[in-house]
């Protein structure tokens, strides 16, 4: 049974989900797309607005090309990373 959630709540949960994925392993847009199935533009928009939640995310260049690298969470700010980790399955279900 899926519950209807608002666009705002879905956007919030998407940001938490992506931040958790980024914090647990090295991801770029391609690997995030492959793992989540989210469109590239959705991923870019969500990552770009993580700072709205106080989450600091940076792109670490790792190679000769500017787009070769991975995202890294510098700080979760006011968000509890361990809480997100504990509730990740519930968050994923709400995003389906």
Automatic annotation (TrEMBL):
Pfam families: HTH_43. It comes from Shewanella colwelliana. This is Helix-turn-helix type 11 domain-containing protein. It comes from the Bacteria.
């Amino acid at each position: 049974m899926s519950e209807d959630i608002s666009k705002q709540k879905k956007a919030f949960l998407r940001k938490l989900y992506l931040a958790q994925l980024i914090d647990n392993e090295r991801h770029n847009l391609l690997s995030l797309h492959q793992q989540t199935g989210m469109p590239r533009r959705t991923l870019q928009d969500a990552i770009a607005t993580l700072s709205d939640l106080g989450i600091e995310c940076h792109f670490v260049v790792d190679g000769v090309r500017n787009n070769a690298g991975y995202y890294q969470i510098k700080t979760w700010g006011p968000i509890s990373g361990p809480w997100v980790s504990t509730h990740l399955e519930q968050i994923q279900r709400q995003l389906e």
